[in-house]
Write a structure and sequence with these properties.
5-stranded parallel beta sheet; EC 2.1.3.3; amino acid binding; cytoplasm; Orn/put_carbamltrans
């Protein structure tokens, strides 16, 4: 494993190993206190962040490493200075790059032109660190991930892509329920379905929230992604039937609610659900750090 750009690059064994490693790091943090001793990691962020920035910064510190944060006050990567030059220069000093960008091609450029591991901390196509944390969270409630039936409800986006590749690698059952015209990328769905078939899982698409059936967990995200200029008033009528509320939780008998945050109460989810006893959102947020630390440990092991 040279980089961590998307979950679909992993084998099922590698995916499960990262989950197991994250669980071990979470349970025994002192055993990994020097795992990144002497290592420096540069974080390049084009987008604002709470969970990603804090979880990486503190997580790297907990592993004994040093973190340097660079935001892009002068514009996107590649505007003031080429992505290749960013990657080459940072590789002279740092041991890894964590990048949160608008375009996935920027992440790929950093990996291509740099000589150190690159971690995708979010692009418009994928959010693999979130996906890994999501499946770590589910693994803390289910002994067998393949037994899980999960639904993603709302707008198909980068979080959906990573969630479905995780489901495919785990051999779980995932229903992606979106308004027509808002499904995740068709090619990625096809790829995830092929991977799922190899591992006994399934990825299905639906536009009927009332037909979800019995579920173990329901996942949603904001209806309008960061940087999208769409007005809520333009889509609210279309999306409101996909709101996760007490009725949907009861109808599906779901015992777990998930959201990558930030959330908009009263839109994609009601306060009653996200702030209720079945909500796992803070567990997911905490697990971001442990999942990312597992990736960092693996990447530096791979490079030795």
């Amino acid at each position: 494993m040279q980089h961590f750009l998307t979950l679909q690059d992993l084998s099922a064994a590698e995916f499960k190993h990262l989950l197991q490693s994250a669980a071990q790091i979470k349970a025994n943090p002192s055993d990994y206190a020097q795992a990144l001793a002497g290592k420096s990691v540069v974080m390049l962020f084009e987008k604002p962040s709470l969970r990603t920035r804090v979880s990486f910064d503190i997580g790297i510190n907990k592993l004994g490493g040093h973190c340097l944060y660079l935001d892009q006050q002068n514009g996107a990567l590649g505007v003031r200075e080429s992505v290749a030059d960013f990657a080459g220069n940072i590789s002279c000093w740092a041991d890894a790059i964590v990048a949160r960008t608008f375009a996935h091609s920027t992440i790929e450029g950093l990996a291509k032109h740099g000589s150190v591991p690159v971690i995708n901390a979010l692009s418009e196509l994928y959010h693999p660190c979130q996906g890994l944390a999501d499946w770590l969270t589910l693994s803390e409630h289910f002994d067998d991930l393949a037994s899980i039936k999960l639904a993603y409800v709302g707008d198909g986006n980068n979080v959906t892509h990573s969630l479905m590749f995780g489901a495919a690698l785990a051999g779980a059952s995932l229903v992606i329920c979106c308004p027509k015209g808002h499904f995740p990328d068709a090619q990625m769905v096809s790829q995830a379905q092929a991977i799922a078939a190899e591992h006994g899982g399934s990825i299905e698409l639906s536009s009927a929230p009332s037909e979800l059936g019995q579920l173990d967990a329901i996942y949603t995200d904001t209806w309008i992604s960061m940087g999208d200029s769409t007005k809520l008033s333009d889509i609210e009528t279309k999306f409101m039937p996909f709101q996760v509320n007490a009725e949907m939780m009861a109808q599906t008998q779901a015992q777990h609610f998930m959201h990558c945050l930030p959330a908009h109460r009263g839109e994609e989810v009601t306060a009653e659900v996200i702030d209720g006893p079945k909500s796992r959102v803070l567990q997911q947020a905490e697990n971001r750090m442990h999942a990312q630390n597992a990736v960092l440990v693996k990447l530096f092991e791979s490079g030795e």
